[in-house]
Design brief:
It is built from four helices and five strands. It is α+β, with helices and mostly antiparallel strands. It is globular, with a radius of gyration of 14 Å. The N and C termini lie far apart (38 Å). The model has no long low-confidence stretch (mean pLDDT 97).
């Protein structure tokens, strides 16, 4: 399931700029209309300025004018299935609904799917302002 989006995440992973961690992460986000945008982690010598693949993917799409998103696929070099970090969850929550799907996969092809609402319950958002 979602093979095409996972393939796009793998394609994105090849664009990772990760000379410090050597941990390449790729993401692909799909809009409501089925368009796909890529993201990869981009690291910085000032380590904390590094940005994750999930955020570059959604920022890439936002800058192309997209505002409605269905799902995101994520892959890394790890044998583990990785899930978005806290900062990325919060950024996704700014633009995606609770039922937004996150398809997490690893190099062995194992996959887990969770919604944004499941991985970031009881979140702070614009509804609270
Ligand atoms: N990273 C991501 O791009 N996404 C994640 O979900 C976890 C971590 C990146 C940040 C850094 O470049 C490298 O992985 C190691 O933490």
């Amino acid at each position: 399931m979602f093979e095409n989006l996972i393939e796009k995440a793998k394609e994105a992973q090849l664009k990772s700029i990760s000379p410090y961690s050597n941990f390449r992460v790729g993401a692909a986000i799909e809009t409501d209309e089925g368009k796909i945008y890529l993201g990869a982690n981009i690291e910085n010598a000032s380590y904390s300025l590094t940005i994750c693949a999930e955020r570059t993917a959604i920022f890439n799409a936002l800058l192309s004018g997209e505002r409605k998103f269905k799902r995101l696929a994520l892959i890394s070099d790890s044998e583990n299935i990785i899930s978005p970090c806290g900062a990325c969850r919060q950024v996704l929550a700014e633009f995606c609904n609770q039922d937004f799907e996150i398809i997490m996969t690893n190099q062995k092809g194992e996959t887990k799917i969770a919604t944004l609402g499941e991985i970031l319950p009881f979140s702070f958002s614009k509804k609270d302002l």
